[in-house]
User: What shape does this take?
Amino acid sequence: MAIPKILLVDDVQLFLEIEKRLLEQSNVEILTARDGEEALKIVRQERPSLVVMDINMPKMDGIDCCRAIKSDPDLAGTAVIIVTNASNDGDLDQSWKAGCDDFIVKPVDGRLFLEKARRFLNAIDRRRKRIFFQTEIAVQIEGRIITGTSFDLSYMGMYVASSWLPSVGDSIVLSFRLLDTSPAMTVARGKVIWVNHGRNRKPDYPDGFGVEFKEIIGEGLAMIRINELMQFVDLRKGKE
Assistant: This one.
């Protein structure tokens, strides 16, 4: 059985690398393009099942490329997800009119990216690459600051071992260093998605809670910080 193909389109290489890493657990062939003209050529030649495409690109933007795909009877069945800017409602309206199947708003949320991609491609695996990772964590919630210890880490979340337990759905801010020798602090806004305590406690995990990252902030551009996190996880995973 042929491996399904997904085409990622963005003129910024960093964004392409981040999306590629999100798909590392999936049994798909990943194609990339840097503008709409190149993307349209690849769609005609390779016939990917799904195209995830930025809206603002040189030569041909995402809207014109989407319109060209959807107006071609041979290509119209190709699913297209447009990546757009949250501040521009006009982009969303034009994307729908061009025939896109769905959209994602920047900054791209990794969990949402995988969920939306899986709607159109069952081969997308939503599991996250995790590594064992222990470091002190400062947790800020509702004006309080508590400390805990990380237990594992992925691109999109972390498990925090702590005797203090929040509630599922709580919004929190985590501050930690990827390397003890590094002065740079990684700060992540996130949401508590599960608590390991009580009757349904997982014995392989200490008391604590799992956090899904919503936004990586801190020193430097957010996307650069996300890339640093991904590189760190990849490096540590390769040594396990």
Remarks:
- The domain at 130-239 is CATH 2.40.10.220 (Thrombin, subunit H).
- The first strand starts at residue 5 and ends at 9.
